[in-house]
Amino acid sequence: PRQVRLDLITPLKLKSRGTLIQPDTLSGRELLIALARRVEACASVMETLPLTPEPDQWFEHAETLIERAELAWLDTHHYSNRQHEALKLGGLTGRLWLGGPVLERIWPWLWLGQWLHLGSSTTIGLGRYVVRAIADHKTPRSSSTRHAPVVKNRVSRRVA
Questions:
Q1: What pLDDT is recorded for position 78?
Q2: Which helix (H) or strand (E) holds 80?
Q3: pTM of the prediction?
């Protein structure tokens, strides 16, 4: 797709140079770094996962990846049975609209990341997201126009 919306389902906790990334400081490059790290970490134990592209291909035009962001910070808690205490967690929540020339190159890994998650604490469920393709502006927006042929075909099959 030319443009996608990335919905953060659980908080996304990312760090850059030891500092937590806040809603107003997330960049396309940091998002790509998190995605590349996660895919490479999972690929090291699961041989069937594709390796990420070379860094120069991966990060070229990274600054154009995030076209729009509606992000907030959410603090949550997690109880650790091992440590016998509640741990404070937090991360970014909201939506990102992604596009630009880099989207086509990273699409397979971005799609796969929905099951791998991103950032810190993925093993307890943080960093889960869903990617949704955004319809091209040239396609009709009316739901009745898009769905009419499908309904008509169903009816004709039942009659026949």
A1: 76
A2: strand 66-80
A3: 0.76
